[in-house]
Design brief:
- This protein is α/β, with parallel strands linked by helices and about 300 residues long.
- Helix content is about 30%, strand content about 20%.
- The protein contains twelve helices and 16 strands.
- It has a seven-stranded parallel beta sheet, with helices on both faces. Strands 3-4-5 form a three-stranded antiparallel beta sheet.
- Helix 4 links the parallel strand 11 and strand 12.
- Helix 3 crosses helix 12 and helix 7 packs across helix 9.
- It is globular, with a radius of gyration of 20 Å.
Length: about 300
């Protein structure tokens, strides 16, 4: 029998779970494996401790009551999501959620090998070092981000693998009170259902592009993909190009990087001010701990937060 998870793959075999210590985990049979060891489950894929906390709070399992000062909004297909507020530097309150989550950013492209996973992992670390609490969602069946976190002995935030075609309905189950979600989408040409579902969830679509003629030539079809997914959303998503693996660390008025920015703008793409230089610091970082402080990804995180605030 073929189910939602493909032939001969049960939900329990592939569904990832978060651990209380912020590690990454996958549910395998009746146990959850993660950096803190093994935590038992009750057979339905839920941690008994979580259920106990929910019951102690007076709510039904899986449906905790909103906290004081938190507003609840309707989302997709009858789902609800609490809407928190935090003080800004100016002392006023602003919402942490736009439509689905506070800051939800997906890295998408038609092709593999453009730096989606590297950018997703580095951005999540930059947001964490900026004082936000991110959730990193690995939607690629290759699970490169999850593997990276394993090799690095864990990230300081949760990482979950959701390589399924209804990601937009599942992410909120793991969100908790996280202030940002970074989603690593697989290439659209090979995994369109998963990638489009991720795009339905994220409010910001980031397209990493190398400033090379062959890469720029591949950009035209993605506009059609974006238009198709926009038609499925209740609210339109923002989209922008991130120039990745640029030739120089600093932006220049001339040269291939500037030419790529101009060409993309003429084709109707918004290009972010931040760009990521071609450095071994990023290219050789897979599997290693990441420290984003002082890197271009801190500027990238700041630019995304500003875009989110401007939209609110």
């Amino acid at each position: 029998m073929r189910g939602a998870f493909g032939p001969d793959r049960s939900r329990a075999a592939v569904c990832p779970r978060l651990l209380p210590d912020g590690g990454s985990a996958r549910l395998r049979g009746s146990v959850v494996a993660g950096p803190s060891g093994v935590v038992g489950t009750n057979g339905r894929g839920r941690m008994p401790a979580s259920e106990g906390q929910e019951k102690a709070a007076g709510g039904a399992p899986g449906r905790p009551r909103p906290q004081p000062g938190v507003r609840r909004f309707s989302l997709l297909a009858g789902e609800t999501r609490d809407h928190a507020v935090v003080p800004t530097e100016a002392g006023r309150l602003r919402p942490l959620l736009s439509f689905l989550v506070p800051l939800s950013c997906a890295f998408v492209n038609l092709k593999p090998g453009v730096g989606k996973t590297t950018s997703a992992v580095w951005l999540a670390h930059a947001l964490h070092e900026s004082g936000m609490s991110p959730l990193l969602v690995d939607g690629d069946p290759a699970a490169s981000a999850l593997r990276w976190s394993e090799l690095a002995h864990g990230f300081p935030f949760p990482v979950i693998a959701l390589p399924v075609g209804d990601v937009h309905r599942r992410v909120n189950d793991f969100l908790g009170d996280r202030q940002a979600v970074v989603l690593d989408a697989p290439q659209l040409e090979d995994h369109p259902r998963i990638a489009r579902s991720i795009m339905r969830y994220a409010d910001e679509w980031i397209v990493p592009v190398t400033p090379a003629p062959i890469e720029l030539d591949r950009m035209a079809p993605i506009l059609g993909e974006m238009a198709d997914v926009q038609s499925l959303r209740a609210e339109p998503a923002r989209s922008a190009v991130l120039l990745n693996r640029t030739n120089r660390p600093d932006a220049t008025r001339t040269g291939p990087d500037a030419d790529a920015r101009e060409a993309l703008t003429e084709r109707g793409f918004e290009v972010l001010d931040t760009h990521i230089a071609r450095l071994d610091l990023y290219a050789q970082s897979f599997g290693n701990p990441v420290q984003a402080k002082g890197s271009a990804y801190m500027d990238f995180a700041e630019e995304l937060i500003k875009r989110q605030d401007d939209e609110a």
